TrEMBL record:
Organism per entry: Shewanella canadensis
SUPFAM superfamilies assigned: Flavoproteins
GO molecular function, one term: FMN binding
Protein name: NADPH-dependent oxidoreductase
Source taxon at top rank: Bacteria
Length: 214
């Protein structure tokens, strides 16, 4: 199985990319883990027409190939003004449901403060309607992101007891939650492969009439 992590910050050296790097190292059970940092690619702004994806020099062919190969996705967005990033939303608009339908997606919001719920609500409400990705029931909100996941070194109970530092406990709890979420994503990845195969082998009559959500 293959995992694709998409970080949607519009800034280089972003906290979203830092979280993606940590999750790449923590994800197990996949034959391949890839990370696309959207700000590093000059993606065209999608105008509703297929031709806009393939303008001269567009990297979309390469990106869509990674999406097509993936069995699961992690979508990471910073919270900007209570919204998901424009880069991530543009990416989701460009995704073809032939490449994304019935693939599990773990939603991750990154915020420097203590909010972070609004981008998750936005993505759940309207970002997956036509591409038909399946959002996991669980999601992640990485709050005070500047203070956490700054190394790949694990923190265990022994180090916590030694330091007596409440921030260490928060780091341990966060990493444990990430581990659980990655485990569940892997479970969904394996289960939905069967759904996609059955969908291809026994299609619903005239199913192309229902390629878009209501």
């Amino acid at each position: 199985m293959r995992l694709l992590i998409v970080s949607g910050s519009q800034r280089a050296q972003s906290q979203s990319a830092k979280v993606a790097k940590y999750m790449s190292s923590a994800a197990t059970g996949y034959s391949e883990v890839s990370h696309i940092e959207l700000c590093r690619f000059d993606l065209p702004f999608w105008d509703g027409e297929p031709e806009s994806k393939s303008t001269e020099g567009s990297p979309w062919t390469m990106i869509s190939h990674k999406v097509r190969r993936a069995d699961a996705l992690i979508l990471i967005t910073p919270e900007w003004g209570g919204m998901a990033s424009p880069l991530l939303k543009n990416f989701l608009l460009m995704c073809d449901n032939q490449d994304t339908a019935h693939k599990p997606a773990l939603l991750v919001s990154v915020v420097s403060g203590i909010s972070g719920a609004y981008p998750i609500a936005e993505l759940r409400m309207n970002a997956l309607k036509n591409n038909k990705m399946v959002a996991l029931p669980d999601h992640l909100i990485i709050r005070n992101v500047n203070e956490v996941l700054n190394t790949n070194t694990s923190l265990d109970s022994a180090s916590l007891n030694c330091k007596h530092n409440i921030e260490d406990q928060r780091e341990i709890d966060l990493r444990a939650r990430i581990g659980y979420s990655l485990h569940m994503l892997n479970q969904y990845s394996g289960a939905l492969i069967g759904i996609r195969k059955r969908h291809e082998s026994t299609p619903y009559p005239k199913q192309q009439e229902y390629c878009y959500g209501m």
